[in-house]
Amino acid sequence: MAEEIRCVLMTKPRAPLELRRVAAPRAAPGGAVLEMLASEVCGTDVHLHHGRLAGVPYPIVPGHVSVGRVVETNGALADVNGERIEVGRVVTFYDVFGVCGACWHCLVAKAATRCPSRRVYGITTGLADGVLGGWAERIEIRPGVRLLPLPAGLSAEEFMGGGCGLPTGFHAVERASVALGDTVVVQGSGPVGLNAAIFAQLAGALRVLVIGAPRARLEAARRLGVEDTLDISEAGDPAERVRWVRERTAGRGADVVIEASGNPRAVVEGLEMVRDAGRYVVVGQYTDAGDALLNPHRHLNRNHATLLGCWGYEYTHLHRSVQMMARHRERFRWASLVTREYPLADAARALADMETLSVVKALVRPG
Ligand SMILES: [Zn+2]
Ligand SMILES: [Zn+2]
User: Phi first, then psi: what are they for 61, rounded to 5°?
Assistant: First the structure.
């Protein structure tokens, strides 16, 4: 086994990334080690670098959603179907551990993504916990972390074209209870918004409209089957954007609006786009970007709207979204969303490109 590996370290907010050699991770009993094939660069990594998330134990190895090859196990490993996972298998994994299954959140509220013991790879795990981020040549899979072998025919690039946006967009569409024939508006054209647009169609939406920027992301949305897009850099007035939706919905507004923009002001605007008795899901406010002033009478009470939040995802969302991806890979071609790949040494450039939105999906390729 390798004695040392290279990994990227985010030592503290706003500090330059460092390429470091550290001791190679080893598999604890019931755990494994993966040789990384690819890890994603997402908006969360940009937030981490700006110190916008609470409870992050810097220094950290970023990269929460990743694909790798099993190179070491310590005891038998199996997937949820009971199938053995052998050395050499290409897998992703549910990037969460520590959910206790015993607390009020887990047992009474059945809201496991709010379990206080929940830890996330590459976000709320530091180097002190081990190599638990994907911007590394190898990563430790802790005992109990669920491995998910990629289904036959699905490549690492395809899976990573979805990345964390895949289960997150899936979860948002599930929360929205999209019904057959619905018109769905998605605010935001990043990976979460694009995957929500995909799963809304698979859930039976008649029409999906996407509002976002920049142009490359909106072009991607149209390639994915979205009926129409609105570029917020051209339609700068919120009232104009609300009108754009109403013009396309007989003046009524959309059955479902999914917010995946990250901008608090989008929430008030999105509520203006929902039809009477429609549903609104907020999934884009992953960091605290500030307050929004809404009118409870107009936005919620009088129009009989349902407002839902959506935090993280559970194993079920990753599992089902990956099976859906394997089934619909020809139609949606997720791999085409990967705009650029970077070696470990260029992780800082990947982060900068993600921040300026000059890429749709960026990958770190440790190999
Ligand atoms: Zn718990
Ligand atoms: Zn992510």
Answer: -100, 110
**How many residues are listed for the chain in this entry?**
367
Which stretch of 97-111, 248-262, 264-278, 346-360 has the lowest confidence by average pLDDT? 346-360
What are the pLDDT digits (tens) for 25-59? 999 999 999 999 999 999 899 999 999 998 899 99
Q: Using CB atoms within 10 A of its CB, is residue 318 exposed (0-12), middle (13-18) or buried (19+)?
A: buried
CA of 111 from ligand 1 middle (Å) equals 8
- Alpha-carbon separation of residue 242 from 63, 182, 235, 236, 273 (angstroms): 36, 18, 10, 11, 6
- Residue 13, preceding bond cis, omega within 30 degrees? no
Determine the distance separating the centroid of ligand 2 and the alpha carbon of 211, expressed in angstroms.
21
Q: Report the C-alpha gap between 185 and 289 in whole angstroms.
A: 22
Query: The dihedral of CA 31, 18, 58, 161: what is its sign?
Result: negative
Give just the sign of the alpha carbon dihedral 12, 58, 172, 327: positive
Give me ligand 1 centre to Cα 101, in Å.
5
Provide the pLDDT confidence category of residue 1 given band limits of 50, 70 and 90. low
Q: Quote the CA–CA distance of 259 and 184 in Å, as a whole number.
A: 11
Residue 20, classed as helix, strand or coil, is strand
